[in-house]
Amino acid sequence: MTYIDIIGEEINQKEQYQEQPAINHEWLKKAMNHVLKKIDQNLKRFTHDFPSASTENLQYKAVNGLDVDWTEGFWTGMLWLAYEVTNDEKYRQIAELQVKSFKERIEKQVKTNTHDLGFLYSLSCVSAYKLTGNQEAKEAALLAADLLMKRYHPKAKIIQAWGDLNNPEEQGRMIIDCNLNLPLLYWASEVTGDRKYFDVASNHIHQAVKYIVRKDSSTFHTFYMDVETGEPIEGKTHQGYSDDSCWSRGQAWGIYGFALNYVYTKDVSLLELSKKVTNYFLNRLPEDDVCYWDLIFTDGDKQERDSSGAAIAVCGMLEILKHLPLLDTDSMYYKNAALTILKSLEEHYTTSETEEENGVLLHSVYNKGRGMGIDESCLWGDYYYFEALVRLSKAWGMYW
Fold it and tell me: I want to staple 5 with a disulfide (CB 3.0 to 4.6 A). Which of 1, 9, 246, 394 is the partner?
């Protein structure tokens, strides 16, 4: 299947997104100040250590050494965002300390057997290099890109998500999250002049288009390919409700990820696909515009929200808007929908100012099926919420 075969829905809540919500500079300043206050509360604790992937009883725990996960880059990314909007050197100093930690981690290959090297190194080291010219950060990010390249199966033309490349249970698994890991490879191609990184990233995203996106514009979380023949096997879920439902955060990775890949490839079909995936997402939002953890659920199902998926989708829509033609008839709806979701997050899903809640966004779900981070704060949700606010405050140069 190609993107041409994918059926796109029209936005069926156009009346809801007809008008821009009441967002102004004062609102934005208040929202940004809350994020900065939460970062400041955590600075001392998370200078050498990192926050855990999600909170327990609304508290991030400290991780380091062999306890690290795929999420530490989100914290360092928040520090770089804070440095950008405040010019306060304290954020830069701690972020640069963490760059050294990321350099050591990639050299020793500590828990790097994953495609999430993009999440880890784009936000920590590519950002550092782009903002300050830090050569150590550039070296670390290029090492990460080289390691990510080793996860590529040339016959299947995909990057394996995680696990040993020869493990039959994990072999040939691609997941929609990888859309956000590919910018690390595009960046590596730009700074080295070597086309190989670009080609691998481009091959992977087009396999994702072909197999992860369903005909109705919903998405599988994961899809298995035969790495020997290159033939497709089957679509499954890992974090969604069922194999044929649509995991909300996965759909949000699609919204943002296909748009980011358009930025580098200039393949207009990816931008059009981002719109189709966005429409499917918007058409299944509940009354307050913040998604349940799977889009199969509606108001009355008594299921948890995933505010982190909502924040990712907002960033995706804001990126899409940068590239649509001026006469695109859906632009207004995407803008108003993004701002409506963001306003709902700020009003109903942010933490209190007390240190008892040390995250930023409440009511996220890490992995419902495995009982992880349910109705808690998640580090990536905090990051994407902050990124969305920064996007509204300035002409932001992406870390991706």
Answer: 1
- Residue 116 among the catalytic residues: yes
Q: Can you give the pTM of this predicted structure?
A: 0.97
Q: Annotated catalytic residue: which of 5, 49, 116, 375?
A: 116
Residues 6+ apart with CB under 8 A from 301: 292
Q: How deeply is 14 buried, as exposed, middle or buried, from its count of CB atoms within 10 A (0-12, 13-18, 19+)? A: middle
The pLDDT tens digits of the residues spanning 365-380 come to 999 999 999 999 999 9
Segments making up each domain of the chain, as ranges: 3-393
Phi and psi, residue 93, nearest 5°: -60, -45
**Mean pLDDT, all residues of the chain:** 96
The amino acid that residue 1 corresponds to is M
40 catalytic per annotation: no
- Top CATH class, 3-393: mainly alpha
Active-site hit among 5, 49, 69, 177: 177
Half-sphere exposure of 144 (CA within 13 A, CB side): 37
